[in-house]
Every structure is written in C-alpha cells, then in structure tokens.
C-alpha cells in the first residue's frame, strides 16, 4: 500500500470510521470496541448539538453550522424545464485556523512537487536533444527554415 502526502492510502480517496477507530485504538491501547463507542458518541453529540443549537465549535478544528438555503428556481438539465427547489437546511463546515494552515502546507508541498516534476521533465527533454547531436535534423518540418540573403 502506498501513502500520499498526508499519510492516507492512495488507493482509496477517503478514510472510514473503522480506520479512524483502529488508528486511535493502536495509539491508546484501548480496544477497538471501546474506541468505536467513544467515536460514535462524539458524532452523535455533534449531530444532537447541531439540531438543538445550530452550531458546534471545536477549537483548533472547526465549526459545524446549520444554515438555511432559500427556495430558488432551477433548470432540469435533461428537459430544460424550470423547476422550483424548496428551501432546505444544510450543514456547513468551516475549518479552524490550525487545520487551514496544515492544509495550506499540503497545497504548498503539492505545488513544489509539481514544479520539481516539470523541471525534471524539461531536463530530460534537454538531455534527449543533446544526445541526438544537440539540434534538429535537416528537413525537420517542426523547425522554421532560415535563408541567408544573397
């Protein structure tokens, strides 16, 4: 199994609750059953407080909030007909400053990796050009023909 920048398995684009439980169990020495109950109680508590209060703030993590989306008109992409979309409630999440900073580091690392890969590709291309004599062959249609004036 290979791991990505943030230590997550590349084969799967997500982490399951079971994997979170196993990781915490391995770190704490508590059984997976104990951790599963704690994790589920935590999730249930977040949901209950969202329903009761409309907002759950977890310092250094982020804020969950229930927001209302107004009713609106939309268009059915298959038929092109206009439809009414009723008002609905959605849960939003705004990451905390610490999480934002850590994600930014991932973005910076990904940008640096892309920059390095581009530089390596350019170096390979340059090396290929030098191994064939450092230029184009006569009659190469991709290169413009320059004539000297008489």
UniProtKB/TrEMBL annotation:
GO cellular component, one term: cytosol
Record organism: Aureliella helgolandensis
GO molecular function: DNA binding; structural constituent of chromatin
UniProt-recorded name of the protein: Integration host factor subunit alpha
Keyword DNA-binding appears in the UniProt entry: yes
Record's keyword terms, sorted: DNA-binding
Database matches in SMART domains: BHL
Entry similarity comment: Belongs to the bacterial histone-like protein family.
